[in-house]
Write a structure and sequence with these properties.
Helix content is 30%, strand content 28%. A hairpin with a 2-residue loop joins β3 and β4. α1 packs across α2. It is globular and about 35 Å long.
Length: 189
Amino acid sequence: MNRPHSNPPGELGTLTVRPLDPACDAELVHGWVTHPKAAFWLMGEAELHDVEREYMAIAAHPHHDAFIGLHDGEPAFLIERYDPTEVELKGLYEAEPGDVGMHFLVAPTDTPVHGFTRAVITAVMEFLFADPSVRRVVVEPDVTNSAVQALNKAVGFEVLREIAKPEKDALLSACTREQFEAATGGADR
């Protein structure tokens, strides 16, 4: 699962992905998901044990998993991958064969690097599309999360429609492999 993603030399470094270990990574992830910049994760009031319990449940779930993204070997982002016909979007949209759901979160930092979040979402999409069975990535960001909507658009997502989830009103959006390659230059990068 440790898939390197290379950026042009001298730019943003190397992004890799490893499975999240709930016991070892809970404290790290707790700091990320409770940070004010992670408000859309809806875990701002979570205690450490809540985060550990949440990611242990994800690790045990047959249709949901989580990963830590590394920037030059250091933890820098979180990925959740799920089967949208079983988790998050079950019964809320018209699934297609090869759909996979995704959430991602870049770790908060006091020293942001221009272009880093865009590099992360690109690496996340490459990671998901590395599985040949994945034909389309679906996401459901909060309707008010304009920052992630702009990132989604930049890598090829198109808004399908607004949907009501129990915890939020969301913009159901999808990106096929072809849309991603067209938006990012595919293998030419």
